[in-house]
Specification:
The protein is mainly β and 103 residues long. It is 0% helix and 46% strand. It is globular.
């Protein structure tokens, strides 16, 4: 199971992600993972399980999604320690033990 350590302007929290789970991230309260970030789109990006890991998928967001500081053109595989930026909200992707909110 992977973990997302999410830091937005109001919170820092941990989310467990199952191997085949899909989580939509964005400003909308209808998202699976709502974030507080001014530059985030309502439905900004998706963490998509593949069974062998996860992808980050930009959902046509206005300001784009960054992976380790580089724009994600459509989708990109996630690796342990990757940092996702969704409109100013940072999300650390962890697959190894020891991933904690303070990591």
């Amino acid at each position: 199971m992977a973990k997302l350590i999410v830091r937005d302007v109001e919170h820092t929290f941990l989310v467990d992600v199952e191997p085949e789970e899909r989580l939509v991230l964005g400003r909308s309260h209808d998202c699976d993972l709502p974030v507080v970030a001014q530059r985030a789109s309502r439905r900004h990006a998706e963490v998509r399980g593949t069974g062998n890991g996860h992808l980050i998928v930009d959902l046509g967001s206005t300001n784009g999604t960054l992976l380790n500081g580089v724009p994600v053109p459509a989708e990109a595989p996630l690796r342990d320690g990757d940092v996702i930026d969704v409109g100013g909200c940072t999300i650390l992707y962890r697959t190894s033990p020891g991933g904690s909110v303070g990591a």
